[in-house]
Amino acid sequence: MTAAPRRAHAGSHTETVRQSPAAYVVTIPKEVTVRNLSVAIENTGSVPVVNPRLTLAGRLDWFDADAIVREALGQAKTDEEKVVALWEFARTQHQRMTPPGDPLVADPVVMFNVYGYGNCGCISPALMVLAQKAGYQARVWELSGHTVCEVFFDGRWHMMDADTGRMFRDPDDKHILSVEEIQDRELWRVFKKDNRGYEEHGYDTSALSNHTMALTLRPGETLVRTWKQSGKFYNYWARSQYKPNSGWWLPYSRYASGELVFRPQLTAEALDRDALAHEALAAKAEGSTGPALRVEPAPAAAEKTSRAGQVIYHVASPYVIVGAKLEADFFRARSGRGGEDWIAVDVRNAWTPAREDAKEGWVLVYGAAWTNDVGDLPTVADFTDLFNTADRDKQGLYEYDIRFRFSASDPAQFPVGMSDLVLTTEIQVAPLSIPALNPGENSFRYWDETQGDRQLRITHNWEEAATAR
Questions:
Q1: Which of 13, 72, 201, 270 is the most buried if burial means most Cβ atoms within 10 Å?
Q2: pTM of the entire structure?
């Protein structure tokens, strides 16, 4: 009889990192079952952290295609051993299911870090790229109702199907057969009719996009990857990433979620460092009241006291974006009867071109021009709908800009601005790409490409339960 796990209790490990590379160990009792919850990398320092990378037991450095190839090849020596190792990696690190519809899934970096699933038309070009990066000639071969990869070595082509997990060997000399050899020998039902197919290059642009997991964490920014599913995933087939369409193949059953959480420092120095652009905004003077960041008063020689200021933040994610919201503490000292004391937030790069409310590329997601509301104005605005793309020819979204605009009729006497901002960008993550804890010793290695003195906090959260004997 299978032993039943006892009641789980929470586990957590926090590691402070001040140098790169850094190594640490998280030890879990061997007599427990582990349910991984999340891994977070938080920039708690004062300089941007460039390309943070965390591996477990020497695995999961999938920053680019070359790094994936290095891990997949392992100790393989001969050409056949190497190609089979690439095929083994591709077939085991993805799940065969409905393709997400993002053309970039054909890029192996996107396939294995962002989605982790797809059909034959997704994994075959991804395997082709890995083989090419390993130094082999490779191609995608389109058949009737199926797509496979072929790799050339030992003077001939060899079919490597990472979608169904099949390859065929000659019974005599044991070489891996090509598409044509498989069909000639009638070894597979896919080849029952004359469908030798053709070499397909339609995937090349997406497969060879050279996507990387490049990411810069600004001070106050955190990357959270969690095994819990948020219910949001990129899926244009269903016309909504929230409601899987049961009429189109299989619902998505293996994906993970995450967030990029940015809480910018609202100082003049931080604006110059972290913002894409800003103008006519100033930090609160020491000892004054009102918002931390406010519209800057007009120069003394100006004819009008009224003035408008703005700050634009750029959000770039190596993971596909599936939602976003802002939580802010805005401030307005007096009502907007004159129409000049107002606050507005808009976003660009995150909607379909057909949106009627897009003005010069910007879509309004929050506007405050009240007649009576003044003082501290706590605000939450969810603009996830801007990432719900139903266009069948549009790839997933990996970046956007968000702009905060403030207008004050008399900023010196009646400030307008904000005192706090938390910007949460929801992302989709391939679960097998997240370093998961197991019973025993878990050896982690962290490194980045930061110039300067970094300071980070890495936090692992899990649940563990002793297994009853």
A1: 72
A2: 0.91
